[in-house]
Amino acid sequence: MNKTRLEAFSDAVIAIIMTIMVLELKVPHGTDLEALSPLLPVFLSYVLSFVYLGIYWNNHHHMLQATRKVNGKVLWANLHLLFWLSLFPFATGWMGENHLAPIPTAGYGLVLLMAAVSYTILQNSIVRHSNYENALLAAAIGSDVKGKVSLVCYLVAIPLSFVNSWVASLIYVIVAAIWFIPDRRIEKKVDA
Predict the structure, then answer these.
(1) Which pLDDT value is given to residue 192?
(2) What is each CA distance from 162 to 72, 102, 108, 172, 173, in whole angstroms?
(3) Please, which pLDDT band fits residue 65 given cuts at 50, 70 and 90?
């Protein structure tokens, strides 16, 4: 099965998710800079989530560039990823509106964890679909150390949210920083 519709649908859904997130930012009810201060946690949560969505979009694009064929399992795995990404606006708003309170911060981490798990499932589904057709992706992924480290970081940060939500949030920022540069493994294989 051709991958074109999967790419187009995924791009559209991610664009809609980003649009929904920005619509959740409320205009302040004042004209001075002090009116912006209550919105700072919401804005910073938005920035972090926008970066995460950008990372997912970018890496999804790279992964599909190395993919030749998809099947029904890959389509369902992709929908699974899009489901968790669609929860970003809710998790972002909840964490930001409540100024990094423990439960919303842990909930945000849970959404990040499940998005990472679903991305891994999608990646593995593509590789397993056709070893010959998608061998380029399999070779590019290798042992996927960054993916495994990210999962461990989320698993540490979620319970840590109940001890120190600022440190947990810092872990979320660090994971985003690790992934900020597009996955060069795939780029190198596709270009070669």
Answers:
(1) 64
(2) 40, 5, 13, 15, 17
(3) confident
**How many domains does the chain fold into?**
1
Burial-class residue 131 by CB neighbours within 10 Å (0-12, 13-18, 19+).
exposed
Amino acid symbol at 75: L
Mean pLDDT of 161-182: 94
Our CA angle for 172, 25, 45, nearest 5°, is: 10
Token pair in block for residue 99: 């100024």
b/e map of 6-30 (b: 16 or more CB within 10 Å)? Answer: bbeebeebbeebbeebeebeeeeee
Q: Cα(125)–Cα(15) distance, rounded to whole angstroms?
A: 24
Per residue in 83-129, pLDDT (tens digit) is 999 999 999 999 999 999 999 999 999 999 999 999 999 999 998 87
Q: pLDDT by residue (tens digit) across 36-56?
A: 888 899 999 999 999 999 999
Domain residues for the domain of 113 are 4-191
Torsional sign, CA 53, 55, 61, 66? negative
- Distance of alpha carbon 19 from alpha carbon 98, whole angstroms: 21
